[in-house]
Amino acid sequence: MSTTKVLQLRSDLLPFGMEDFEDKVFDYLCDSRDLLSVDKFKKILSETGLRNSDPRLKETMDNFHDIEMKQLHDEHELRGYITRDTFKECVTDNITLISKALKNQFIIPEWTPFCENIREMFTDCKTNNAGKPATYIPQLARVNPAYWGCSVCTIDGQRFSLGDTQVPFSLQSIVKPLSYALVLNDLTPEVVHKYVGQEPSGKSFNELTLDYQNKPHNPMINSGAIVVSSLLKKELNIADRFDYTMEQLKRLTGGEHVSFNNSVYLSERATADRNFALGYYMRENKCFPDDVDLHEVLEFYFQLCSIETTCESGAVIAATLANGGICPMTGEKVLCAEAVRNTLSLMHSCGMYDYSGQFAFTVGLPAKSGVAGGVMLVVPNVMGIFLYAPPLDKWGNSCKGVQFCKNLVSKFNFHNYDNLKFTQRKIDPRGRATESKAQDVVNLLFSAYNGDVTAMRRYSLLGMDMSLADYDGRTALHLAAAEGHLTIVKFLLEKCDVSPFLEDRWKCTPFDDAKKFGHTETAEILGKAMTSDPDKDTSKMTSVFRSLHSD
To answer: How far apart are CA 222 and CA 205, in angstroms?
Structure first.
């Protein structure tokens, strides 16, 4: 693509995309019949982190499905392929999101390399056999200790999952920051913290103790969570309170899996002597609002702990917190920003039981664990991660989950203080790899050398000059020709208007490279492109023509 065309393209930008973006995408992806493969388009979208099931792509995917059904029943239709006009009709409702994805404007632009790093960490943690599942609740003790799942959801709705991410498990203590956030969203922090403190307790999560003001130390321990439960829609009856909470959690997940495990609830209630003791102790010290039914509050608290989710939906909850209370999958504002800020602050200081201080020191991110084996990790303004592995350490945290969190901040600069001057440099997945012209050249040539046509399409959609050359004058077309990557050569010639006459410092053209390394078919394509150009030097074209027919 020439500099003039790039400038013209950028001048046509609309607030959320390009006026002719659908045409550009079609031109880059269509075949010689001027038809586009629906599967190819879906695959390219998936490589940006979007799923076909993404609710924000519903109209486009429904349109594709309707066309596929029509083609299935029409023997004259070419199945799986669509024309330009049909493609534009299919994607028009969701073009803003599609344009953002294909122009690398998501928070993690280089999604595939990021996912490969996550996969390495996941595999590394899989061999961790430390710990064992919680035993004080029979249903938790019976779970398969080999379960290991990891789900990632960014604030732009990019998704990646590995392992047992569809297995439901009870939230247990992970519900504590969520119920706290719901109460903060409904009441003011001043009202809530009349009844519960904000300091780490320095004691066990179920310790029979209060702070110097005769309040529970914070909402992340049992006593504080019980008091928070007494504030959550306290004007409603217990059934309506539970329905309200389930509805809000469903909104936090963007409509994904949230359920209730009755057997866990019954076990919670049957093994609740310590929680009942905490309740009576707090009632004696006037920790609850007036006219609170203690038994009803405890029942409600046990129900909340028994709510089930999966890693998949838990990652969306975490991403909603990372996104300031707006669910990335629906765009719905579920929590106010102040409620999220206060919740993340307490998760950072109190979210990992008695290991919270050490976790804040080593990982430096807000997180919350539960004794069922879940860990919810929030990278503010970037992503949410949900981990599930039942074996617990001596503090009650998932052994694999904690290891993964440590590995994550060892690789990426996600720690709260990784941005300080002179801090050891780590990978920042939020930055485009193509942040300078020199890096543009490296990435472009590397993709051409490896035959990565998907990356080439993405760079072209970003408006990159596809004729960029290194210090030796070598371009992507030179390297693709030398390696015999016919698809890349055709793409650069036909879709990007790259000149076949480009010469390196040794006066060699891509055609010369293809001939030199014995790629006959590639040389023919390049030769035809050179001999069919009426604006070039005829002596050069004659030389190429003779070379083509000399073998």
So the answer is: 6
